[in-house]
Each structure stands twice: as C-alpha cells, then as structure tokens.
Amino acid sequence: MADPIEDREHVAEVLRLVEREAETYLATVDGALVRPPGTPVIDGELPRQGVGSLRAVAELIELANEGATRSTGPRFFHFVMGGVTPAALGADWLTSSLNQVAYNWVSSPLAARIEQLTLAWMKDLFGIPEGWSAVMTTAATTANLVGLASARRWWGLRHDVDIDTRGFSGLPDVPIYSSSYLHASAVKALGMCGLGRATPRIIQWDALEGELQMLEGEPAIVIATAGDVNTGYFDPIRDIASLTRQYGSWLHVDGAFGLYAALAPATRHLVDGLAGADSVAVDGHKWLNAPYDTGFAFVRDPEIHAATFAASAAYLGTETLDRPVFGNLAPEMSRRARALPVWATLRAYGREGYRAMVERHLALAQRIAHQVDEAPDLERLADVPLNVVLFRFRPAGVEDSELDDLNRRLGEMVLEDGRIYFGTTVHEGKVAFRPAIVNWRTTEKDVDMIVSVVRELGSRLLATAPGF
Ligand SMILES: Cc1ncc(COP(=O)(O)O)c(C=O)c1O
C-alpha cells in the first residue's frame, strides 16, 4: 500500500477489528494472569511499502496479546494505576476519532467547553474554590510542574523580577520546604523549573513555623503531599496552609491520588484545608480511572498561572476571560482532548458513583491490612489511612538482617508468578510491598489473593532457597 488515501475504504473494518479484539481482551482480563504471556519480538526495519491498516493493526493486536501487562484488570496493584471505566473508554475512542486539538475555542469549541466544565466539576469534587484557574495536564508530574512553575513566577515577582522573561540571574536561592513524603515527580518538576532537585529542605512540620520566621519576610515555597505513595499518609494540609498564609509563602499540594479522599466522609478530613493552598496537582488516570494520560492542575491566582504559560503569535488569536486558551495554561500548546473521557466518566457515575468506588477501595485496603495482621509470617509496617497497604514477609527463624533480601526475592517471584502484581519499596530502611487499590474492577476475591499468594510463594522460597 503506497498511500493512506487508498486505505480509506478500510476505516470501518479497522474499527470493527479493534472493537472485536478489545471486547475479548476486556472480557477475559478479570481472570487473566496480570503479567504478560511473553516478551514479544518487536523488530524490523522501516517498511518501504506499508502493509495496509488492517494488517498493521492485526499485527499490533497480536503483539499486545503477547506483551501487554493486564493492567486494566483487577489484580494489578503495582504503582498506583487505575483501570478505565466503560464510559471513559468509549469516550477515549471517540476522542481519537474526533482528533480535536484542545488549544482554544477556535481549534475546538467542543474540547474547550468540555475541559472548562470538567475542571469546574473536579473543583467541586475536591472542594477547590471556583475562582481558581485550572487546566488539564498529562499527569500529576506535569500538574506538579504547572503548580511549581507558577510558584516560581510568584516568588520572582516578590523580588521584583519576572523570572519567566529574565531568568533567575542575580536572585538568591529559593527557600523550599517539604516532608519526607515528597514524591519523585515533584523533585523532577523542581528540576525542570530550574528551582533545583536538591533544594527542598526536608523537615518535620512542627519545625515549619520556626523556619519561616527565620526567613524574616523572605517568601518560601512549601510542598505538601496529600497521599504518600508508600503509605497513603497525608501531610497536615490545614496546619501548613495556615502558616504559609500567615508568613506570605506559597503552598503547593501534590494530591496525585490522595485528593480522592475528599469523596468519602470517613477520609474527607485528610484533605481538610486544601482551599488554603496556592496550587494543587492531582491525577486522573489513578483513582478517577480515566485513561492514560490524564492529570489536573489548579492555581489560586489566575494571573500568575496565565502569565507563566502564556504564548503568543499572530496566527493564534486572543482569549477572553470566559473562554480560556487552555493551550496557554499548560506546558503543551497542541493537546489531546483528554477532558472528553473525564466528562463522560463523571457524567456516567457522578459524585455518588465515585464515592461508592472510593469507599469500596478503602474497605478493601482495611481487609488486606486485617489479613496481614492475622498472618503469623507477615508484618504490617504502617497504618492504612487510605488505599495502600505496606507490609513485608517476616517468617519466624529468619534473621532481621536477611529480611530485605528475602522480601526483594519474594517481590520478584510475585511478578514472575503473575496472579497478582505489586512492587517493592523501601520504607524506613525496610524492603516492603505496597499494593495500592485503585482499579474500579477490583473486588474482595481479588485482594484476598494478595496475602494468600505472598504466603504461598514465601513458603516456597524458604523451602527452596538455601540461606534463609
Ligand atoms: C504523590 C504522587 N505524586 C505524583 C505522582 C506522579 O504521578 P504521574 O506518574 O501520574 O505523573 C505519583 C505517582 O504515583 C504520586 O503518588
């Protein structure tokens, strides 16, 4: 096939092929092993003559069946990954078919208005004040970038310097404070902003007031985490916000998945005080179960936000207050219309549907915690305020000094076994497991396999590996 135009008649056939295969894939994903059946050989030179759309997509389906982790399934507990709700999935297919550019109202009134409304709904969900500026991003990492780049601009203006125009030249170091929960993506965002990966001073929050006092009026940037990736712990947002407001500093809250605590009456208090922050980052592809990649950034001061990401060129046109140019509020100017699946999933399930899902996940996490506590060879390493359970294998007769190695090897066995999937981490110097419950498909039957599989594989490891 020489030219895509010759392929036009195959559009419907391609879509039908994908629909059929996706349907089979998703119908079997609940019972499938989470690990991929194999590692497909993906190789070859750039073809001189293409094979045509049907064959290309059929080849891709074969590769996907072989090499895709069943991460949309209910037993993928690694990282913090949601599935995709049925409404979001349908809307995501539509998004690709429509291929709208979510830059402004001229490029797509549909994408622009749906993003505007969706952002209003998300503010409502989390209790973020209506007047804040907001934009969709690719993820929490980019939402952290939006928040911290806005903070950088604000800090520069406090020193009478427009950093976005002139850079940092001649300015003192930026005082930045955070806790040990600071996520790697916020560190990465600090690096991308030129604020420096190594600049945050990691403190206990009861020392924050003293630190801010010592600055003698110099403004600081404070980063709080709402939902630590290993434990689900929260920094005390209300207390921190009250200090940052009192001392004229900027508070950025990274609530990638933890912000969804706001949906359940039992956990709502964890995000108490959020409205006192200056910028907030949250993910859509985690607990919202929107497709990859989806995130949201919220900034209290619309002028600071807009000036940080402004861009102009004669052909781009101008914006009005009621019609924001979303491409000028985010790092990317040309952007996928990723609001469409979010609008669809919120429209489909509403606040109550999401409350029910979050509450189910909270209960599932408590169920795992209880099973861990009951098992004589498992040790829980942290409380479970949210949806992550931190624990390790600790059988009798194994020296403390050998536990890290044992758990690392057991973690590898879990991934090779593939019935469940989760990662290892290091918490307070101990190698541990940290399954996170975020997928809408996950049920009691699925989470019950966490403890049973770990204990089964743990006993096998002890029986077969010399030295333990
Ligand atoms: C607290 C926190 N912040 C940021 C991120 C980064 O999210 P993403 O990879 O979607 O950018 C994560 C991911 O787990 C997280 O837990």
List keywords for this structure.
7-stranded mixed sheet, Aspartate Aminotransferase, domain 2, 13 helices, 468 residues, two-stranded antiparallel ribbon, 11 strands, binds pyridoxal-5'-phosphate, alpha/beta
Structure description:
- This protein has 468 residues and is an alpha/beta fold.
- Among the domains are: 4-70; 93-345, Type I PLP-dependent aspartate aminotransferase-like (Major domain) (Aspartate Aminotransferase, domain 2).
- The protein is built from 13 helices and eleven strands.
- It has helices spanning 11-28, 53-67, 86-98, 109-126, 140-158, 163-166, 184-192, 208-214, 237-246, 302-308, 339-374, 403-417, 444-464; strands at 133-137, 176-178, 201-202, 221-225, 250-254, 279-283, 295-299, 378-380, 391-393, 424-427, 430-433.
- The strands form three sheets. A seven-stranded mixed beta sheet has the order 1-7-6-5-4-2-3, sandwiched between helices.
- β10 and β11 form a beta hairpin.
- The longest helix is centred in the last third of the chain and has 36 residues, at 339-374.
- Pyridoxal-5'-phosphate (PLP) is lined by residues 79-80, 139-141, 183, 185, 225, 227, 229, 254, 256-257, 283.
List the helices and strands and how they pair.
Elements: H1 11-28, H2 53-67, H3 86-98, H4 109-126, E1 133-137, H5 140-158, H6 163-166, E2 176-178, H7 184-192, E3 201-202, H8 208-214, E4 221-225, H9 237-246, E5 250-254, E6 279-283, E7 295-299, H10 302-308, H11 339-374, E8 378-380, E9 391-393, H12 403-417, E10 424-427, E11 430-433, H13 444-464
Parallel strand pairs: 2-3, 2-4, 4-5, 5-6
Antiparallel strand pairs: 1-7, 6-7, 8-9, 10-11
Helix pairs in contact: 1-2, 3-11, 4-11, 5-7, 5-10, 11-13, 12-13
